[in-house]
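Pasting two entries for a bug report.
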Amino acid sequence: MCRPCWKGWASSMDITFSPLFPLSVLLGFAALAAIIAVFGIYRGLRGAWLRALSLALLLLALGNPSFVSENREPLPTVVAIVVDRSQSQLMPERIRQTDATLRDLQARLAKFPSIEQRVVDLHDDGKTEAPSTRAFAALSEALSDVPPSRIGGAVLITDGQVHDIPEAAKSLGFSAPVHALITGRPNEFDRRIEVVRAPRFSLVNTNQQLTFRVIDDGGPINVPATVTIRINGENVGELQAIPGKDTQFDFKLNRAGSNVVDFEVAQVPGELTTSNNQAVQLIDGIRQNLRVLLVSGEPHAGERAWRNLLKSDALVDLVHFTILRPPEKQDGTPINELSLIAFPTRELFVEKIKEFDLIVLDRYQNRGVLPILYYDNIAEYVKNGGALLIAAGPEYAGDNSIADTPLADILPALPSGGIDEKGFFPRLSDIGKKHPVTRGLEGSQSEPPQWGRWFRTVNVSPPAGNTVMTGADKNPLLVLNRAGDGRVAMLLSDQGWLWSRGFEGGGPHASLYRRIAYWLMKEPALEEEALTARAVGRSLEITRQTIGDPPEKVTVTFPSGTTQSVGITQQEPGLFTASVPTTETGLFKVTDSKFTALAHVGAVDAPEFKAEISSQTPLAALTSETHGVDTRVANADGSTLALPQILPVHGTVQIEGNDRMAFRLTNDTTLKGIDTYPLFNGIMGLAALLFAVSSMWWREGR
């Protein structure tokens, strides 16, 4: 077979046989002919050699030999060019260097018609949580349909920060050089910050500690770094950190749910980029079991509904007292013979009142059990951030109402003296249809609501705060209000137990009571005015809750610094949402005229944002093992360097040094056609046989 030549078609010539008879028959003829020939030669018969030649030609004709010629076309050598366009390559200077290098390389390779170029642009596809430069995964995909023998090599145009470099060249799947053309400058410097250790969860209002580190890439600068620390967008401190050394930070989370802790190191003159001057840690705040004090003024049908609800919640530690023996009850029973537990008023309302997250006064009346001073303690507890729930009944409108105590300063509604005792369906007010405590309450969507009736409400003066449910004649039924830093809720009926007993089909008492309790304890999801943002895959989901007018557009600030105005759409009364798809990864800020929300899209420790200075080190071992080139495309001043000379090589590449980029040429060909020429089919074959037989007869006839 001849050596392939690119500028022509390669061909080869072979002899094939297509016997006219089965092989066993031909072997029999051959044996007989051999006996005849040997016998004639042995006896010295005249014309024995000519007879042997004639028999041999006859056997050859029966074998039907043919010349077969294959026409083959040489296949091109495939060279892959992986162009890194990840986020670390999006600096203007690197973009220019990358584009110029690609143009020059393609022009040089185009001079070799036996080389086929395959260019792969490596972008962040926006699908992965942790963006990284996976150049070799892209290379493998680009060459997946090419046999290893046809791969002449690969060229990576990158800053060197590649995150899927194979440990050995044999993992590539081909035996050819891998070349690295490194963008950027050799003298780059960059300061960055990263979180070393941090808890994933933290108890609310509990001391926690995390560790971060400031890193100077490209050489020590020996300048202390100023680090600003924010939790959920609020500055909580500023520390001085020494580059290269771990720095510890003590903190407390003040809310449950997802919390964004971000660290920002001050910019250093001359550093490469500020995109990695910020590190983010997401920490889930977990509440300790909520401590609730439930005080029932007297046994009644609805008492068990509150107790059962609070006891069934695994996050609630309940302390419950029922006043069974008020001071005015004097029946002469000696104190030492009573089995009742004394109400520890001083311990609860003086010494430990601050330990409770919620106080519930269930049909409680002022009958002298609590000194007047203790009511003032409860009021101060609420004003300082506590929570109070009043479940009122007829006693609230009576002579011993707690409205005649110092609690009156924080109560949102004062009794007018009357009680309505007629059947009604509790209904959501206009504000209640928007408020997270009552919005979407099961059964509220129809008229009348699909739940049972109640039969008593306490009449009150026009309340403060928000009336979210109404009773008979649209009188207030459920009122929510803020008092100082704390919150107060008033349920102006003691008939909620009818729902728990299933009267007329019952109602969503458990959902309603639980929402009231958690709103009082400042659950973020139940805030009536709130702006939140969270990451869902590579999209930013924005939620705006309001009980007022439809909100305005929000402004989204991307990690790159660009901004986008986003309109939000109403999903249900008081709830507006928007979704912003993005290919960027990092900390997003969402703002309107009142609120700011932070959310981190993607993994907080994505490899793409750690080291961003260009480097030849990561790819050096692989390029050396494959006899490839590892060189920069620019000088320290940014001026362009000439690319190494391109050298096509037949066979194994053994070239060393960075002055020539070698590519291994393939010898593979593709079959285009086959030509067949039978030897004994036609005049020439017949003439040869006739000549041999005639010669034999002539010789024997002499």
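Entry 2 (this is the one that rendered wrong in the viewer):
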Amino acid sequence: FEKAFPWLLVGGAALGLILMVVIPNAVFQETSEVQLKAQSDLRLAILYTTGGMIAALGLLETYRKNTNDRTKANADINAALKNQKHQTNVLKEQIRQFDENAFKERKAERRERYTKAVEQLGSQEAPVRMGGVYTLVGLVDEWLEEESIREYEDRLKEGQVIINNLCAYIRSPFTLASHYDELKQDTPSAKGFYQDKVQEFYADKATLDSEADVRLGIIKEIHDRLQGSEKNTPGTWSDFDYNFSGSTFFYSVNLKNSYYKRSINFSGSYYYKEVKFSGSIYEGEVDFSRSIYMEKVIFSKYNSKSHYKKRVDFSESTYCNYAIFEHSTYNASAIFTDSIYMNKANFTNSKYEPHNKNNSEIIDFSLSIYINTVSFEESTYNINVIFYSSLYYKEVYFGPSVNYEHLGLDKSIYYRSVYFNGSCFYKGCMIKNSFFGSCNNNFTYKSEIGDLLDMKYIDLPRTCRFLIQKQKEHIEGKFQEIEKINNKLREVKDPEEKEELLKKLRSLNEELHKWREEVTTVKVDDGAIENTES
């Protein structure tokens, strides 16, 4: 049509001219004035008709041309868009491949740095080991920020491998730590391993101090990342598991105000210096069991409270100095059983409030020995709590406290006074087959269900007895032995001798519990209860 259109216009115009000449002459053959005017009008009409047809053909051609141009333009646009989309996809694929290759390069480079850093940890030079530590710490941060790994858990897996290495370094034995008591002195002692070894003493002292700095560096870097910018909020490393079990800490440990979302394990550890765990939050299970603390240990205090959301285990531990657990909150079982407290122990103002109350949840202080004053005052128990089969050499304060569940105090020996001081009981309180060395006790309490402590004498529950003189002398002798051991532990510098003293301490603990079990297992009848020392 495009090629024929000019011919149509020419043919239409020619046909119009022919018709303008032929039709008027044929129709109006007369030459009168009227006929001539009629011919002229007819020619004009044919001319207008022909012009209209030509104009219509012109409009039609214009429309066709515009339509074709629009179709072509749309086709060109679609082709351009298709090409652009293709180019975009090509570009995206190139970017993806570039990112993938870049990530592979970063991954390979990190693996190389990781391998080198682990090798540095085995260096003889402390600065080199410290360099390895900082490299590993930086790698953990890099993995956590790696956007090429979409799943956060996958980032954690990469970081956890390095965290395990850092924890393993803390757990690794360091031979000179066994001579810590001597090496902490400014000069060699007259007796001991470094007697007449002055140069070796100063060399080893410097080596031990350098190693302490490396390990303190690890603890500090971890600690800094276990705290959020606001109080009691998780840090960037709070999602990792930490295993420090069996570690020997010959340096101060400061992990206060930390936030752990997963498990933390300090079991079987030995602490030469002061320890601070206060103000921390534990969402996962915690294990501090079978540990020995030579100096003060602070798990929580008034201005720095700790919160345990799952099971926590402090069992089979030895505290040679002040042990502070005050102002703590426990939402599951807390196990303190079979422990020895050489100095004061403070559990005041604590809350035991399980999230899921069931028969398996319990607070257990049983089978423990307290050489000095111990306080459980101002505490709230929404869970069964037992203090069974324990020995208290000095005063023990159980109240005032609020007990919403059962309280068990059976088969224990209290060498000095016991104070309840108006505690409130909503359920049972069992204090059977226990022995007391003092009549200066305070068993006053409040109860919602009547008389919980069946008192035959105003100063003693019905099913309990006073220690006779022979029993007092036995306990006095054993506790004096324990105190002597504790004093020697502070003085002795030879590691083998210290180990022997700790074994002897545990042996005395077992011996005392065996004796206590025999004494408190004897059935106590009303008629057999004595209020004398005979």
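Dev reply: Rendering is fixed now. As a check, the viewer should reflect this: The first strand starts at residue 242 and ends at 243.
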